[in-house]
Amino acid sequence: MEAEKALHELPPSDELWMASRQLDNGRRQTELAVPGVYCGACISTIEKALKAEPEVERARVNLSTKRVTFVWKEEIDGKRTDPTKLVGAIAAVGYESHLFSAAVEEADSERNLLLRSMAVAGFAAMNIMLLSVSVWSGADAATRDLFHWISAAIAGPTIIYAGQHFYKSAFNALRHGRMNMDVPIVIAVTLSYGMSLWETMHHGAEAYFDAAVSLLFFLLIGRTLDHLMRDRARSAITGLARLVPRGATVLSEDGMREFRPVDEIVPGERIVIAAGERIPVDCVVREGASDVDMSIVNGESMPVTVAVGTSLRSGTLNLTGSLVAEATAAMRDSFVAEIIQLMEAAEGGKARYRRIADRAADIYAPAVHTLAFAALIVWGLYSGDWKHALTIAIAVLIITCPCALGLAVPVVQVVAAGRLFKDGIMVKDGSAMERLAEADTVVFDKTGTLTAGRPRLTNAAEVAPDILAQAAELASHSNHPLSKALAAYRSGGAAMRDVREVAGAGLEGKTDRGIWRLGTGEFASGVASTGEGSQTVLSLDGEPLATFQFEDSLRPGAQATIANLRNNGFSLSILSGDRESAVAAIARRLGIESWQSGVRPGGKVDAVKALSAQGRKVLMTGDGINDAPALAAAHVSMAPATAADVGRQAADFVFMHEGLDAVATAIAVSRKAGRLIRENFGFAVVYNAIAIPLALAGLVSPLVAAIAMSSSSIVVVLNALRLRGGGQKSREDAKDDSVSSSAVLAS
Amino acid sequence: MNLLVFLIPVALLMGALGLIAFLWSLKSGQYEDLDGAAWRVLDDGEDQPED
Description:
A: 747 residues, alpha+beta, Alpha-Beta Plaits, Calcium-transporting ATPase, cytoplasmic transduction domain A, 5 domains, 28 strands, B: 51 residues, mainly alpha
């Protein structure tokens, strides 16, 4: 049954053809996202299922990116392959799969460049250090010169290759008249290399090759860690574009059907939308009736009934009936495009945030430059030996070089991200943690965030078991959320014949006992139902047998988390696209005083912006596509893993467990990480307070510089590791959310 | 001094070998799916070698 349902939601064959990449010899490659894989058994199940198909040549699952790539033949024995069958094979073993736009390869090449630079710098640092140690332990003059020359030969290309990252960034900053952390790094590395080369040519004793290269190495470790963490963040925009089908079936005047790319559809054309497909462009229904999942527009899981004359928004999902509709807007003017624009506009706000390390560099870089320059002038004038003065200036630059800044921040953030990961919270970006630590206002979406987002049958105990079983049997034929909730109670009712679904009304099926109907009161028994909330009625030959009540339940830990946040001085509010009564009820239950109902996606952005304008730092927590622009606009944002793809991508944090306590945990860990970063900065200040006078006094030899630099990096890393100890909770403890999250907040 | 003529190139060569091995493993995609690799070790698979 599961597999059958999954098959139902498969992308159509034409779309799979369009999305696949052509290889040589009539083969094609398709890449699909399979979010459900998480273990070795999943890998082998999917790979085996695909390889069992005669058309498939190769199949490989990537567990880290949760994707499957397979190569298939365009035709076999003269028959054109239907890719739906291959995707069906994945569905048949119980895994959902989706198409997605491929735009992630750029990020990979950037990561590989950083890794390669780091490897090269590591290799060079190791070998030069090896030579330097022998020089320090007293090699004779000839050997020392030889070693210096070898070091120079290794360091030169290394600085050019591994340092390109820093040179480019420093050059960019200077060109725009700004200072950043890379400017002192580049000056220190370049000057110390030039100086050491000069020294080597004149058979001098003091060369800083080791310092220059190991400085690059340490900084590259920091950069790489930072990048690996951001790597997970995929562009929210590509995620959203995926919601729109790549093509649609267009019905021409003479009744011909033609599958065309979606951006070629013009207003006025008639398109056919089958059940289970997404609406390609904004349109008006001309024939047919159906239920449409509008969660992209209003965030509610309950579908809306559509009939002739209803307008549809692109990206919404047609659930039950097939429709013919007339396009009213081209793809670029459609609803999804509108949301993309909203998000692009909103993302500017987040970009304005400057990371702690950059703000520190604003103060740090000029200070270091001034000191080094002053050392050069004062020593030059005082001793008249300008070469010696330059050596001292370089020593000042190297010893103050911001290892603590370049390494401390990323290490703390990576450790904190690992700590959060253990509690099932994914962080997209280090700066997100800095921003979360500043948050003072939490805005929640209702459905799917405060609540679990799916209806639950509340009166199962009041209904006779055999009637419940029969209702569940009938309900299992539908995709409607209420039917799905009911179908969970399936336990061997008599099989239904001739089941048909009436859009917006309910289901009808036959058994030997008569005609069963499940749906609205009016449809089932001819009497409109009364009472609050969602309900369906089951009838036999028009006689009502039972009424089923449904309710969307609160997420576990919601009460405790809300109380916890309020006690910690956060101001809380709810922004929901749902009806007023539903929102008010939840707000009352949780004790949240500020709430708004019936808010459209643009309205959520405006509300978040209004809060920001009052100087508040807003944490937006939401799951729907309609929340995505607000997630992007907020100072920092969080989404549950059950969120729509776009919501997940737009958010800075994604929590995997059901409980809402993840919000409190994430805030607590981020604040702790912020404290550790400040401690590391404090350490850097103390370290510099000791090292700079020594350097200024001319007491720092290359040996001292190398030791000081390495030890400061080690101290900073050790300090970051403190975040891992204490406060860890295992999966069992996680259930006891109220206690543990308040403990974390307090610690 | 004479020993150094051999030892230094040997040390550099060994370092360079390590570097090349790392760059090769990076290029051949061995870091693409670290989570999957951990599981694949445990997968016995079919007894016949793949063609």
